[in-house]
Amino acid sequence: MDKLKLGIIGFGTVGTGVYKTLQNVKEVEVVKIAVKNINKPRQVDLPTSMLTDNPYEIINNPSIDVVVELIGGVNPAKEYIETAIKNGKHIVTANKELLAKFGEELFNLAEEYNRVILYEAAIAGGIPIIMPIKTILAGNKITKIQAILNGTTNYILTKMDSDGASYEDVLKEAQDLGYAETDPTGDVEGFDAAYKITTLSTIAFKTRIKLENVYREGITKVRKEDMAKANELGYKIKLIASATIDENNNADVRVHPMLVSKNSMLAHIDYVTNAVAISGHPIGNIVLSGPGAGEFPTASSVVGDILAIQAEFGKTDYMLPMMRCHHHSKANPVKIEDTFNKYYISITAPNAIGVIAMIGTICANKNISLSSILQKGVSEDNTADITVITERCREKLIREVVAELKDCTVNSIIRVAEGG
């Protein structure tokens, strides 16, 4: 049987891992690899003839069956993939940003040309999630996802928690260790997780979620004081990518820090590990956890997609039907101000008689019940540190409460995960 012939565009950490892994796969042959700098020293020995600095030598090569895109970003990756599909090539990609922004367009193009786009590595690194949802879990009505999808932010929050350190100090350490980029914005402001939950919820809910309707909030405002208080109250703080959908196709999809009960599994997903918790019928609740990034974990997902194509290549006129995009309806987005949550609120208030009663009254006037309200000590400037945990209420009302706390400083507002 002829080998499946590949071209790889991008040969960084993941591309190198893919190449190394494929050395043990006799059914697949890497024909060409596109790189920025042919003369750059590499971890693997490659014949010079295999390298090119022109991706179109891969995209336009009639002997190549599959293009593996590993450069990330929208441009020029989108143009490369579109041209490759039109040239009759199947696609394997790890490009979460491109799929979140232009997935619908690309999947429609692939269907038009009867080609497949596989993207297991674009969601949770080495954790298998897309293929299980499309196959083993296909008979389920999935209604809720809560996930930790970014290793950098999870590392930072874990270190803040374990070391009692500030966000700024841990970020610098993470950058020194290579866990965070020199410009960490994509991770710490929640963009990376937002891209991933957009595609993941689209697949799980079988209706399209638009990136512009995904609420996003990063971890830059989380304080070490919040970490300490969360622990006292029985929680951990995690950056959670959350998605729920109801029977009327109303989808609440967002990324933001959350207080997660120590009794939940997500509270114990630490450092660069990722996890995805799924709720549906008839499966109930399941959690998949593992390495969310890195050379070989991500390569594992990329190579798995390659081998899924190889197993059917040349044997059917319509390859991998279950892995294709068949849904074209769009979910009704739920705005963040219309969501219902429990809230942790950290307040610095004047140390005066009636302050706690005032806070309680403002909340009561909005029909917001308080689960707890605690004051710990008085500072030298005669202010009190007050922590409030609310019962479940509408976000819009919490914003109105904060606006009315005129003589107080609201240090933090963090939503509390359901069930804790």
Question: What structural keywords apply?
Answer:
420 residues; alpha/beta; Rossmann fold; Dihydrodipicolinate Reductase, domain 2; Alpha-Beta Plaits; 3 domains; 12-stranded mixed β-sheet; 6-stranded parallel β-sheet; 14 helices; 18 strands; 34% helix; 27% strand; elongated
Question: What does it look like?
Answer:
The protein has helices at residues 13-22, 56-59, 77-86, 96-112, 121-124, 130-134, 151-163, 167-177, 185-188, 191-205, 224-232, 295-312, 355-365, 395-404, and strands spanning 4-9, 28-34, 51-52, 66-69, 90-93, 117-118, 141-148, 215-216, 235-245, 250-261, 273-281, 284-291, 332-333, 340-350, 370-378, 383-390, 393-394, 409-416. The chain has 420 residues and is of the alpha/beta class. It folds into 3 domains: 4-125 and 295-323, NAD(P)-binding Rossmann-like Domain (Rossmann fold, 3-Layer(aba) Sandwich); 130-292, Dihydrodipicolinate Reductase, domain 2; 336-416, ACT domain (Alpha-Beta Plaits). Strands 7, 8, 9, 10, 11, 12, 13, 14, 15, 16, 17 and 18 form a 12-stranded mixed beta sheet that branches. A 6-stranded parallel beta sheet has the order 3-2-1-4-5-6, sandwiched between helices. Helix 1 (13-22) packs across helix 12. The longest helix has 18 residues, at 295-312. It is elongated. It starts with a strand and ends with a strand.
